[in-house]
Amino acid sequence: MPGPIQSIERAAAILRLLARGSGRLGVGEIAESLELAKGTAHGILRTLQGVGFVEQDRDTGKYQLGAALLHLGTSYLDVNELRSRAINWADALAARSGEAVRIGAPLEGRVLVVHHVFRPDDSLQTLDVGTLLPLHATALGKVLLAYDTTLKADPEPFTRRTLVTQTAIKRACAKVREAGWAAENGEMISGEAGIAAPIRGHGGIVVGAIGVSGAVERICEPDGSPSTRLLGHVRDAARAVSRDLGASRW
């Protein structure tokens, strides 16, 4: 029987290293961690980049897992209990709210979008399933961060409204726990906002979040606070999914 193929083993090791990392890694960091020649690591990374398994940041030149690799894993999400229990409620939330709906779960210090329902209109939209979102700059992320998910990387400022200090983030998490929902307003993308609420499983443990997102003028009231109507729809959907997952408190 033929033995293992070394180049594939090395590629797998690089992917595992990037998956464990708290942020992007440079060629030198990867080569040193895996005891590879820098040229060898670079060649493998370029190959992985060519098939979409890794992506290179234009500004820093560092690498992270690519969308194509994340999408390969979405087949398991169809049988994942969180997603399967939430699909119908997510569709209903999109219909009631008129906005895009996303369901997120924690993954390696970020939010993995496990389900996405398009805004029910004719606008051009991109499927976000498999996308990794920051915890501190999104409504979905703030919900997960408020219930014991660790913020592994230093907070990145996406806009001037992004919360980047530990004090501000802890204060926001406390508000989420008190109110039972989270909001974002131009914190990841200027002009976009979102509202999210926790999805709980057995014992009331938060296992995910569901929310709506869209233009600030549709998601928020004139004073910038979340729309009362949309907030009600989001919380109702979160409770419904939680009940289906066995959270007795809902």
From TrEMBL:
Keywords: DNA-binding, Transcription, Transcription regulation. SUPFAM superfamilies: GAF domain-like, Winged helix' DNA-binding domain. It comes from the Bacteria. InterPro entries: GAF-like_dom_sf, HTH_MetabolicPath_Reg, Tscrpt_reg_IclR_C, Tscrpt_reg_IclR_N, WH-like_DNA-bd_sf, WH_DNA-bd_sf. Residues 68-247 form the IclR-ED domain. This is IclR family transcriptional regulator. Residues 5-67 form the HTH iclR-type domain. It comes from Amycolatopsis bullii.
